[in-house]
Amino acid sequence: MQNTTIGLLGQSRPQAGRLRRGAAIGAVGVLLPGLFAACGGDDSGDESADGKIKLTVATFNEFGYEGLIEEYNAMQDEVVVEQKKAGTANEHQDNLYTKLAAGSGLSDIEAIEVDWLAALMEESDAFVDLSDSEVEGRWLDWKAEAATTEDGALIGYGTDIGPEGICYRSDLFKRAGLPTDREEVAKMFTTWDTYFDAGRDFVKKSDAAWYDASGATAQAMINQTEYSFEDEDNNVIAADNPEVKAVFDTVTSLAEEGLSTNLVQWSEDWTASFQNDGFATMACPGWMLGVIEGNAEGVEGWDIANAFPGGAGLWGGSYLTVPKQGEHQEEAMELAKWLTAPEQQIKAFEAKGTFPSQNDALEDPVLLESTNAFFNDAPTGEILAERAEAIAFIPHKGPKYADINTAFQQAIQRVDEGKESADEAWQSFLADVERLG
Amino acid sequence: MTLDTSAVTPLGDGGEPSGATATPAGERDAEGSPPRSPAWRRRVSRWDTRLSPYLYVSPFFVVFALVGMFPLLYTGYVSVHEWGLLGGKGDFVGLDNYARVVEDRYFWNALRNTISIFVLSSVPQILIALVLAALLDTQLRARTLWRMSVLIPFVVAPAAVALIFGNVFGDRYGLVNEMLQGIGLEPIRWHVNTLASHVAIASMVNWRWTGYNALIFLAAMQAVPRELYESAAIDGAGKVRQFLSVTLPLIRPTLLFVVITSTIGGLQIFAEPRLFDTQGLGGSDRQYQTLTMYLWELGWRVRDLGMASAVAWLLFLIIIVFALVNLAVSRRVGALGARR
Fold first, then answer.
1. Structural domains in chain B?
2. Can you tell me the ipTM of this complex?
3. Would you tell me which residues 202-241 of chain A have a C-beta closer than 8 angstroms to some C-beta of chain B?
């Protein structure tokens, strides 16, 4: 009687124990490889019900393509386009790498970020050569060059770029006795020295920090160094490069002077600092305007200066590629060509603010005349177009760039957090570089 | 003709798996051939009783072989090769990847973090779940409401949990720190201090899993015969004594089950620490990088699948060791309770 009430769990203990142990070990086997199996292949289906070819376009964050894809579907009747959007760039990157490695499962068109370009250029065989006389001269020279292999194959069509201006809080400037007018502020931001000097002046008279994050400022400076972590032949030079050490020393000593919030970009505290008058300036590429507007909702006083310390800077920007795995490469190439044409990128800019990389689009009145109400009606289109023209070269980013950069950013963060002194952090950065090989 | 139908039916069902015999049997049909003989039928029926049980359970094992065994072995195969995420398979390198992993200081760092977070989450989690289950097992008003509500945290997605706790445990503008500062205490640096970060992550895990485990314990407790409590009460045992001497020994199998599953889950913890950090490496000094995050870093950031697979196998072995140790310890605990 007792045994039956206790039921399943009570009877014949030793056996039940053994069974359960077996099940547990079995479960380990199932759970562990699950880590790898996380991204299963989904077939991209060839034909829709009405006999049209189905094309998929995989993007991340906001490309502003929703309206364009509807338009494309309506203007021809051979293909039906479907967009797959990943929430974050990281998610998209993991998916892309995994399926590239697996050899199947990618979309007909895959968007890629400029920071992964170097690693993917090494696998250029996996992508269709998109070079075509029709698109020659469509993009800013350096934009197309970056995606061109040594053999002259073009593996991606440029979509957007991230020319940077400096966004600033004119209300905090005013309280600290700094000029607030866009033109005058721009004069203070021509070189890093004048920018930092203005910052030293500012923090003496204000509770807020000067810029949003040490890492972001370091990143902006690294992006102005032609060869930072790797040389022309992709040898790692991070440890011995005086320019890298100089950037490190500058931002860590400025943090000590109180110019930085000592927060990490994209952390919860960083996001919250927009609402708490945490800082007065930050580097802002076009796509950042939307981020600021979202984080700083209800805060008045944001503006953008037509200047960037040290000349010009780039932050982000993407390409569309056609993987060779796809079955409809010609149709996909046709679609990618259409999506990245100046007329279409202008519409994407209107939709989501992605700043175009096409020469013609940069002269388009729609772009040049656009203003942003949140930023005190600043002519953001014109400012960013001028910032884009000021770019003379793009920094070399080899296959190890992203990994070393992460280690570099972490070293700066350790000093910000007081976990290590600047010297200790530099030494551990060197050890990390050594580890990455 | 009557003979025909009666003979075909068992053959068609039982004989089908042996495939090849089906067609010749059909051909020989007209001649009234041996397959229809009573002896054949007996044999088929014997096969049926012997083989059918295996056939019925086989789907699990087929699926397990496909999604469990194969990836496990294949991961082992990858781990002894040079294997880039994008470049694919390279040379056979033996145990080289394992050696490189063991020599990497971040592996040991990740192991330490994993064990620390595991202990900080599993131990309080099981203790609280036991107490919670014991409380839910008493005569409460609106019992179902209470019982269901402990499960609510479990249905919230880990990403959402991480988002909420990210705000609670913010270093500067977080809820906990603002409260601490409100009563004049020093703020705790949740993302900087190693132990603090582990506590923050463990509380996310506990918040999610305690209620779930409590319900499993509750189910087991309800199967404990009430007479035993009555007898214990007559013998003069108080509530605590009843819990220790009646409840605990009788739910021991369930306790073992929960300990093992939370060991497996705890050592594989990924989403919570991953989302606690925007960079994904577990803090500026990898204060809270767990083994699975380390694996992810090697596989998808450094793009070395060989090393990542070696970590996966090492983790597998570590989990088995931990599960066995836990099994032994919890048996001892259960046995002690029974002896009292």
1. 2-61 (no CATH), 99-339 (1.10.3720.10)
2. 0.77
3. none
